[in-house]
Amino acid sequence: MAKPKIATAWMAGCAGCHMSFLDIDERILDVVKLVDITTSPITDFKHFEDVDIGIVEGTVNTTKDEEVLRDLRAHCKILMAWGDCACFGGIVASRNPFDKTDCLRRGYIETESTVHGKIPSSDEIPRLLDKAKPANHVVKVDCFVPGCPPNADSIYYALVELLNGRIPVLPANMMRFD
């Protein structure tokens, strides 16, 4: 029987959730015996194939993030959101009370260290969305592992639950809101 396939994606965020995944330490050897990890920041493959489990980290902040998330959702049976950014919008969503144009002007023109600033514009640069969004505001998410970042035990627990055919519901002692 073929091993289940997992793909992960990293949108606007710090990569802390993928670091927590790596922090499961030697248990990662148990995981890779049971699954094939396809597309992910860890493998650096760029295109999604059909997988059993898709995992997303980070906030939907740009048009590229939306595209990646929709593509991942289209290629997975179950989608899990890791971390506060993917689950709730996280720190990236702290820009939401402000106008997008004001944020860009402040970031590229008005900062104290900027000299002759200019807001970048290119077809190669994804467009900033009007508001940053959690993953479930764009696609259906089947399970959530909150935390900033979620700890390694929470991630491992959620993966084992999925591999055993159960949608994970984290016990209270694994819920982490730092």
Notes on the structure:
The structure is a single chain. The longest helix is centred in the middle third of the chain and has 12 residues, at 63-74. The mean pLDDT is 91. The strands form two sheets. This protein has a five-stranded parallel β-sheet with strand order 2-1-3-5-7, with helices on both faces. It is elongated and about 60 Å long. It has a single domain (5-96, 129-174), classed as 3-Layer(aba) Sandwich (Rossmann fold). It is of the alpha/beta class. The termini are far apart. It contains six helices and seven strands, in the order βααβββαβααββα.
Read across the widest sheet, the strand sequence of neighbours is: 2-1-3-5-7
What is the number of strand segments? 7
Percentage beta strand: 15-25%
CATH class: Alpha Beta
Secondary structure layout plus pairing:
Layout: E1 5-10, H1 16-22, H2 27-34, E2 36-37, E3 51-57, E4 60-62, H3 63-74, E5 76-82, H4 83-88, H5 100-110, E6 128-133, E7 143-145, H6 152-163
Parallel strand pairs: 1-2, 1-3, 3-5, 5-7
Antiparallel strand pairs: 4-6
